[in-house]
Amino acid sequence: MDDLSINFAGIKAPNPFWLASAPPTNSGYQVMKAFDQGWGGAVWKTLGVPVINVSSRYGGLNYRDTRMMGFNNIELITDRPLKDNLKEIEEVKKYFPDHAVIASLMVESREEWHQIVRDVENAGADGLELNFGCPHGMCERGMGSAVGQEPEVLKTIVSWVKEVAKTPVIVKLTPNITDITEPGLAAVEGGGDAISLINTIQSLVGVDIDNFVSYPNVGGESTNGGYCGPAVKPIALNMLKNCAQHSGINIPISGIGGIENWKDAVEHILLGASSVQVCTAVMHYGFGIIREMTSGLERYMDNKGFNTINDMVGKALPNIKTWENLNLNHKVTANINADKCIECQLCYTACEDGAHQAIGLQKDVSRVPYVIEENCVGCNLCSLVCPVEGCITMERKDDGKEVVTWSDKTIKGTAPETFNDERAGGIGHYVPEPKDALNKNR
Ligand SMILES: Cc1cc2nc3c(=O)[nH]c(=O)nc-3n(C[C@H](O)[C@H](O)[C@H](O)COP(=O)(O)O)c2cc1C
């Protein structure tokens, strides 16, 4: 049996799966239900001076058959009284002493920070998460992402919190910034014990083209919100990698953004996260997704021979280089498996119009396309558009001996001077059909 337990900057949890601060952690009822189903920790919906939230407040981006591939919200922090939340935190800790309960906080003045830290710690919170990420509503009042975008201000507030905090302090960063490592470093300098990222990305998820109102619609008006869900995972992974590879950011990282299943979580862990947080996927599918997440993670750890989560943290980082250090001599070309091909010819169209004219169609023989090796630059596009898994594979063609990088000053241009005549048209040889011929074909 693998050991999924973690000690994240001093916060212990039975597994690395935490609920992110959001509607699923709005109340003690929800957090206890989630723990019962297997979640290892919960970051409470952000506490502060309670707000009045608007209705409606969410918008979704559907892509073809996938609903809520991206999710947008204009919700602020908790609208529930602080004393109710404190009572429920205490209750959760009574029933679940071994699970991690982290209080997410957002207030303004030094005195308010001191007071709320004491309040949640007295209630039994195991740690604090400072919300410097919310990119709508609170930032207009100088809080949330307005702090996350000003490293010096962030550092000052972290140091205020550290003046009184007895539990570990996690600093939650905003992705609405050019270089995420700047606030990451400020968190370290302020004395933060860990960072978490990402909060939501400032966004407008769409416009109702009949009524001329962007979503979500609040009585015929709207405002920009925060974007999350599966669509943001690539952005989150890149920012996570940037922080994890930075030598000055030497504190634990909690990975957040687009995590929906065990594989997403493993990707975050391999890029340096030692706990992961989930919001949108739970809002979409419920707490029950934790069962697949834990069993999938255990299976993966067994297969790879990892005994603890720590064994996996950051395993993919050494293989991420700057572009100039990639091997320019590495060469792959596409290979089409005729037995798997369903003859849709999407690879032909994509390569012909959108890439390098390296796929040809056989005349009168078969509808299975073929690869014109001399033109194939190994870009991958054909295998990405192919709807059949494993039908188009990329095969290595270089001898693997010579490594040439851009940083080696000696490299010369490698573009081929001539192209295969079999290719339809060819760069500089495209002859348009006469206009009346086109019209006749219509
Ligand atoms: C409706 C909604 C409310 C949220 N409220 C908070 C909040 O109060 N505090 C906070 O730090 N993050 C809040 N978030 C951000 C999430 O904690 C998380 O950082 C973000 O959604 C990315 O994770 P995901 O892709 O798993 O959703 C909220 C997100 C959503 C969708």
Can you put this structure into words, describing what you see?
- The chain has two domains: about 5-320, Aldolase class I (TIM Barrel, Alpha-Beta Barrel); about 320-440, Alpha-Beta Plaits, CATH 3.30.70.
- It is built from 13 helices and 20 strands.
- By secondary structure, the protein is an alpha/beta fold.
- Helix 1 (about 30-35) packs parallel to helix 2 (about 80-95) and helix 8 crosses helix 10 (about 290-305).
- The strands form six sheets. Strands 3-4-7-8-9-10-15-16 form an eight-stranded parallel barrel, surrounded by eight helices.
- The N and C termini lie far apart (about 65 Å).
- Helix 6 links the parallel strand 9 (about 170) and strand 10.
- About 30% of the residues lie in helices and about 20% in strands.
- Flavin mononucleotide (FMN) binds near residues 77, 256, 259 and 281.
SSE layout:
Blueprint lengths: L5 E3 L2 E3 L3 E3 L8 H10 L3 E7 L10 E6 L2 E8 L8 H14 L4 E6 L4 H14 L3 E5 L13 H4 L2 H14 L4 E4 L8 H9 L4 E4 L3 E3 L3 E2 L4 E2 L10 E4 L4 H13 L7 E4 L5 H9 L2 E6 L1 H6 L3 H16 L27 E5 L9 H9 L4 E2 L9 E2 L9 H5 L6 E5 L38 H7 L1
Parallel strand pairs: 3-4, 3-16, 4-7, 7-8, 8-9, 9-10, 10-15, 15-16
Antiparallel strand pairs: 1-2, 5-6, 6-14, 11-14, 12-13, 17-20, 18-19
Helix pairs in contact: 1-2, 2-3, 3-5, 5-6, 8-10
Flavin mononucleotide binds next to β4, β6 and α9.
